[in-house]
Q: What sequence folds into this?
């Protein structure tokens, strides 16, 4: 694996940790307010980018 793919894995894990923290904050119903929804959406978009990097690196 390349350094780029390793970095993407770690960034993805950090983003998932952020999402997990958000879910813990809003437990048990996970009723997110507008700010939380925006934060989650931004994290998911960044996560998709990291997954894209992994897909590119694995296709080499």
A:
């Amino acid at each position: 694996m390349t350094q780029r793919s390793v970095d993407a894995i770690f960034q993805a894990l950090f983003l998932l940790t952020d999402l997990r923290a958000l879910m813990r904050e809003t437990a048990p119903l996970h009723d997110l307010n507008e700010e939380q929804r925006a934060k989650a959406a931004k994290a998911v978009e960044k996560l998709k980018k990291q997954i894209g990097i992994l897909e590119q690196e694995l296709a080499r």
The chain has two helices and no strands. The mean pLDDT is 96. The CA atoms of residues 14 and 20 lie 10 Å apart. The radius of gyration is 14 Å.
